[in-house]
Write a structure and sequence with these properties.
218 residues, alpha/beta, Rossmann fold, Arc Repressor Mutant, subunit A, elongated
Length: 218
Amino acid sequence: MTRPSRPDISRATSTQAPTGTLRVLLVDDNAERAATVAAGLMAQGCVIVGTIPNAIDLVGEVRAGLVDVIVCDLDSPSRDALESMRALHRDEPRPVVMFVDRSDPESIGAAMDAGVAAYVIEGLSPSRVKSVVDVAIARFSAHQALKAELAAARTALSERKLIERARGILMSTRGMSEEEAFAALRGLAMDQGRKLAEVADSVVALEGMLRGGKKPNR
């Protein structure tokens, strides 16, 4: 079967996708099936930014085409395809919906580990693609929000430990009380227009230099 020529992704996104429109990248080596799915998605307001025959370089495709979501229709995900999805999840996170004709528990687990948001067995039904995409986007968004929350919590904990260490240094070297040391750090931060954690980091680094050692690990 003849594969479709690849669309001009940059032109499609810039001229056909108004703000707020869902931009979809299709991955399918079956031209007739891909055209049917594309028609169904476009009928529901989506813009197809491109149709590619495999999932080998999803990071590059996403960066080139301003892609919001990726819909893959595969007989069974290959190792290269899963690795590409893993790289996408790490470098350019996007919801990935995968329709497969056959699968097994190991493949499902590998797909989930690679960051696939929805994994549908028994192939793709054009009539339900958009609803599956909507669920995948909701799940992806919740997962990304949780990741951001955890990252913020880790950063806050790390900064708190750093500030406590800097305060301890001022208390031991300047004979300050806890309140005085914290006030000194906060005053420096305000005077220099820096974050409190950044000032604390400078204090810890300076203390290490004065001791003749390297900046301590935190």
